Amino acid sequence: MLSGKFIKTVLFGFALLFSGAAAQAQTLASLPINSAPISSVGTAKPLLGWSQFCDKFRSECTVDTAEADKIELTPQAWKTIVSVNQRVNSSIKAVTDTDHFGVVDTWGFPDDGKGDCEDFQLLKRRLLVEAGLPRRAMRMTVVIDEIGEGHAVLMVRTNRGDFVLDNKTSSVLPWHRTGYVYIKRESQDTIGWVSLGGIVSSPTTTANR
After folding, report:
1. What range does the record give for the signal peptide (predicted)?
2. CATH architecture of the domain covering 4-200
């Protein structure tokens, strides 16, 4: 479980970024207007690491259908999303589960300052929930990355389209500009996963990878 001190430290850190050049680099004006959201094509099998994570952190996986399934992307909400992505990426050291824990795959929070892709995204979601954004609108997502390997990102669903928070880039990108192949994501309606059909997105020319 993340300590209150750790959460406050990270929240304070990304709050400082609000006035920094990095957080100001992405503005609402730079985003596509009304980009099409990604569509699901049926159910998908959950990952074992996710299922084990949910056994330990049930509240992180519970779906409250009374919550909004999309975020109203106000300038403040966008600033918060961008800042959390940048702050967590700069604060956590990327290590594989094999090097970190001696196992192939395990999901959790990077309490010791180290983690792999899903750990980055789980922390981002927790901090965004702490900042008041609806958990239901933020879904863990499995993709195939630019080198053909499995990778986890956080898909943030908004009224302006679906955006991706990724530990590989400081930019928050529309899902269709990442260059990833989309395999599946957490359902917004029940505890489980939905298939994204292996849809291929176009690589962006502006991502800072």
Report:
1. 1-25
2. Roll (3.10)
